[in-house]
Design goal:
By secondary structure, this protein is α/β, with parallel strands linked by helices. The protein has a single domain, classed as Alpha/Beta hydrolase fold, catalytic domain (Rossmann fold), CATH 3.40.50.1820. The chain has 8 helices and 17 strands. The chain has a 6-stranded parallel β-sheet, sandwiched between helices. The relative contact order is 0.13. InterPro entries: AB_hydrolase_fold, PhoPQ-act_pathogen-rel_PqaA. It holds the Pfam family PhoPQ_related.
């Protein structure tokens, strides 16, 4: 079954040296090669998504833009004029991924005389978002997805939750802040934008197996983003929260590779996926996660962390310097600690924590499952919080402009 399968990772890069070709020392190429060797399948890396740097003719600043600066500019253009959806950067990023699968299939058929008809697609951050939309538009070929550090589904509602956690916007949203996208969060055109680019708009197509990889101290996204979309997704859907790393996934590259491999192999070989369900309970004093897994995990443990702030429910590795915001972000040094769980049987487990003296405690349960062939698939529950409340009132209308924190 792996013979006709391929894994494609979408990554970034730039066009500063358009004649350059990646070599075997490139990290993405090396990791992709390792996966190809271990899985006996085709793997590929799609670079330079999006095409950047770019200077827009319509940009009064004539800025040399990349990454979020491009996306924010195209969002601003759409919010001002929603009759031109072709401005949205997500569309060409998605098209690039679809065309890359065409090219991979054609190349392998020509060189190796073997078809590649089934893909698993993955990527991080903006490429993680493109992973979702690639699956939405090409669900016939895309048999599984592994979006990494991008689970801002149900975008508008999730962003309102972001505001309530921080009382503003993470400093990483500076490009969107400068384009007044945050000010227009409640603008009807922002919802029209979300109707096009938000993966939740395509939930009826996103029924393939999904391994959603997030980090506990992400500067962009929050540990409980899943509260706003997970129950709307169908098909095998798993979370994998990585402790002690941030949006960069620094230090977790090999862990991610091994987990993605296990998930990819399980999908393409038709292995049974683990069964896991959980219930979160929380009060001002105590929180519990009760987990049931008939699949009998080989390892179960909990991870927990406590905020440094008593003002914001903030587990980011970095935050903006409050005394001098112009000096840039500073390290918060949030530490996630692993812990045991209460084992009620081979299939039932629980973790319980009390509220800290100040701030918030977050925790989740991690379960490991053996996969035929010797690999291991690691999944987690959603994250619970003690106390469960969000510290700030929601924003409305123009007050959503907020501040960076």
């Amino acid at each position: 079954m792996m013979a006709e399968s391929g894994y494609m990772k979408i990554v970034g890069g730039n066009n500063n040296n358009p004649d350059s070709v990646p070599d075997e020392t490139d990290d993405d190429i090396m990791l992709s090669g390792m996966m190809a060797e271990r899985t006996g399948s085709v793997t590929a890396v799609l670079k330079q998504v999006p095409n950047q740097y770019i200077i827009f003719a319509a940009d009064p600043k004539q800025a040399k833009r990349d990454e979020d600066a491009i996306i924010a500019f195209t969002w601003r253009h759409f919010i001002d004029d929603p009759t031109k959806p072709e401005w949205l950067l997500r569309l060409p990023m998605t098209k690039a991924a679809v065309k890359a699968m065409d090219a991979i299939s054609a190349f392998v058929l020509d060189v190796a005389k073997r078809p590649v008809t089934r893909f698993c697609v993955g990527g991080e951050s903006k490429r993680g978002w493109t992973t979702w939309t690639t699956a939405a538009v090409d669900s016939k070929r895309v048999k599984c997805i592994t979006p990494i550090v991008m689970d801002e589904l149900n975008m508008v509602k999730n962003l309102h939750h972001h505001f309530r956690a921080y009382g503003g916007w993470t400093f990483e949203f500076d490009d969107y802040y400068e384009e007044y996208v945050t000010r227009d969060l409640d603008n009807p055109n922002t919802q029209l934008l979300a109707d096009i680019v938000d993966p939740i708009s395509y939930k009826d197509r996103l029924t393939m197996p999904k391994l959603i990889i997030s980090t506990g101290s992400d500067e962009f996204f929050l540990p409980d983003d899943s509260y706003y979309y997970l129950n709307q997704l169908s098909g095998p859907t798993y979370l994998s929260m990585l402790p002690n790393t941030d949006h960069s996934c620094d230090g977790k590259e090999v862990d991610i590779l091994h987990n993605v491999e296990s998930f990819y192999i399980s999908t393409m070989k038709g292995y049974s996926f683990p069964e896991v369900s959980w219930v979160l309970n929380s009060s001002s004093a105590e929180g519990t996660i009760n987990v049931v897994s008939p699949s009998k995990p080989s390892l179960v443990r909990a991870w927990y962390a406590v905020t440094k702030s008593s003002k914001r429910r903030d587990f980011r590795r970095y935050k903006l310097n409050e005394t001098d915001p112009t000096s840039g972000p500073v390290l918060q040094d949030i530490l996630w600690v692993f812990d045991g769980v209460t084992k009620h049987s081979d299939t039932q487990f629980s973790a319980t924590y009390t509220a800290p003296p100040s701030g918030w405690l977050a925790f989740f349960v991690e379960l490991s499952f053996p996969v035929p062939g010797g690999s291991v698939m690691v999944v987690t529950t959603e994250t619970n919080f003690v106390p469960p409340d969000l510290p700030f009132p929601d924003c409305k209308g123009l007050e959503c402009m907020g501040n960076l924190v």
